Amino acid sequence: MLLALSCGGGNRNLCTSKNIRCDNPLICDPDDGLCKCGGHGGVVCPAMFICDSATNTCQSTRCAGIDCSSKAGTSCDVFDGMCKCGGTGGTVCGATESCDPAAKRCNPTVSCSERACSRNQTCNLQTGQCQCGTQMCADNQFCSPGEMKSCVPALCNGVHCAGANVCDPNDGYCKCNGVICQSGEVCGCPPGSDGGTCSDTQRVCRSGSACTGVTCVNGATCDPVDGQCKCGGPGGPVCASNQICSLGPPAQCQGGAQCVNPDGGMKVCAGGTSCDPEDGRCKCGGRGGTVCGTADAGMPAEVCVSSALQQSCRRPCDIRAPDCPTGTYCFFDSSAATPVAYCATPTGTQVEDSACQSPTACFSGTPPRAMHCNGLALGQTGICKPYCDVANGMAGCLQVPRAQICQQIAAAPAGSNYGYCQPQ
What we know:
Layout: H1 14-17, E1 27-28, E2 35-36, E3 49-52, E4 57-60, E5 75-76, E6 83-84, E7 97-100, E8 105-108, E9 122-123, E10 130-131, E11 141-144, E12 150-153, E13 160-161, E14 166-167, E15 174-175, E16 185-188, E17 204-207, E18 220-222, E19 229-231, E20 244-246, E21 252-254, E22 274-275, E23 282-283, E24 303-306, E25 310-314, E26 329-333, E27 340-344, E28 355-356, E29 363-365, E30 368-374, E31 382-389, E32 404-408, E33 418-423
Antiparallel strand pairs: 1-2, 3-4, 5-6, 7-8, 9-10, 11-12, 13-25, 14-15, 16-17, 18-19, 20-21, 22-23, 24-25, 26-27, 28-31, 29-30, 30-31, 31-33, 32-33
């Protein structure tokens, strides 16, 4: 910068009175006589910054020639020219750390040989991070399989487990220390434990004794998990003393303080839910249960999917014309207390004719296709079969390499035409 000072004063334009000349593209500010980027009201560029006359902003030169490609996930900090996780204002990762660009934080570097990734994820050999396709899922997400893997909400979101069972984040099913208890079993501490208390990792499935001495009436059946009389058996709603059990299907508790319509008739709930006598709302699980989502923006109301071990609200779908959100597919669950088709994330990649132990385990990724776990029940393994429309007959099933017919799914609602392909 060149300065030329003149004698005299009194002129408010310091640039003129002091005969100040600025190097291009800087312009003199008449208020203080400083050469600035933008002139009057502009800024004085700090060291290692140059003025961009097109935008009247100071641009850093510190990052010129700086290559951060050898430090994965980092970018150059314009103030000091260092490769940082998060770029300008970020953090310099240590020798034993790697950058997580999505979270803008340095994590301990772990080699893929030492890292176990969640289901459907693979370890990036360069960063040691687990990835779902090209994404990194958050702690509250699950990696959905398919041609294009995607991060979807965690499978345990909205799942309520019965008794001491705990939801498994890898498949969304309630388990006792990693094991699905069978009919008549309860998740509890092993015999002889101190006071009947133990950690989740010590619990085992054992014969339930909660129903000893319990007598149920009005169509209800005792649930060995908690000893409560439930309408329709384990997985059904618990009726209040002033309600009756209507076995349906679906099984519902009717009547009660808040569950009577103005005309005196009993309130009937839809989607597998049952009326809560305390507030009159239809809930998944009835009294003390969960209110499922209502119809919104053209989307159908959620349905209640319940079993002896768990309850959850799911978005319904049609297996013949599914419209599920990205990463989820339409499955028909024959093992639910009220069999229903709903959108879910695939929890397995069992192919056609493979054994299956959950309603969402049958899935082919190329092209993405959900299949039916036919014959599934608590304690009983099913077989993966392709879905089809009974109305289309044989045309709904592939006939190569073997001829197949479309048979109605036994638990499917009458008139639904939900079927599965079966060799002739």
